[in-house]
Amino acid sequence: MSHLSEKELQNLKEQLEKEAGEIESRAEVNKRSPEFGSDTETDFSEEADEAEEQSNQLGVQQALKERLADIELALDKMTRGEYGKCEKCGMDIEIEVLQINPESRLCKACKAV
User: Fold this and answer.
1) Cα 42 to chain center, whole Å?
2) Considering its fold, how many domains does the chain have in total?
3) Would you tell me how many other CB atoms lie within 10 Å of the CB of residue 74?
4) Which residues in 77-108 are b (16+ Cβ under 10 Å) and which e?
5) How far apart are CA 1 and CA 28, in angstroms?
6) Is 1 a domain residue?
7) The pTM is what?
8) Considering the chain, what percentage of its residues have pLDDT values greater than 70?
């Protein structure tokens, strides 16, 4: 039995679903490759800038994928009735933690360690 009320669970679920939609939108925008200059140009600094931008986009893309995976896991746990339990100690995750970070996997005490 969850330590969260039905209303709290529903609010957290809506928050997770909204965040997932926003992340998917950001990921879609971030997938677009940066505009590379003409292949006939010999400006190596521009090419270096473009390569750095592409590297930055890959890093952001990976972070978005990881966050989306955490959200999907939290939603799956809700479906299974396992949401809100610390993965480390098994205790309830405080509602304050879940309201700030609804995909949290750890309680305050375990996060502090």
Assistant:
1) 39
2) 1
3) 24
4) bbeeeebbbbeeeeeebbeebbeeebbbbbbe
5) 37
6) no
7) 0.74
8) 80
- Which tokens in the block code for residue 72? 């999907």
Three-state SS for 92?
A: strand
Distance in angstroms (rounded) separating the CA atoms of residues 100 and 19? 12
Q: Which of 5-14, 18-27, 28-37, 101-110 comes out lowest in average pLDDT?
A: 28-37
Q: Is 102 helix (H, G, I), strand (E, B) or coil?
A: coil
The pLDDT value given to residue 58: 82
Residue 73 CA, chain-centre distance (Å), reads 11
The answer to the question of residue 26 being in a domain is yes
Q: CA–CA distance from 41 to each of 18, 44, 47, 48, 50 (Å)?
A: 44, 8, 9, 13, 13
Q: Is residue 46 part of a domain?
A: yes
Q: Which domain holds residue 13?
A: 6-82
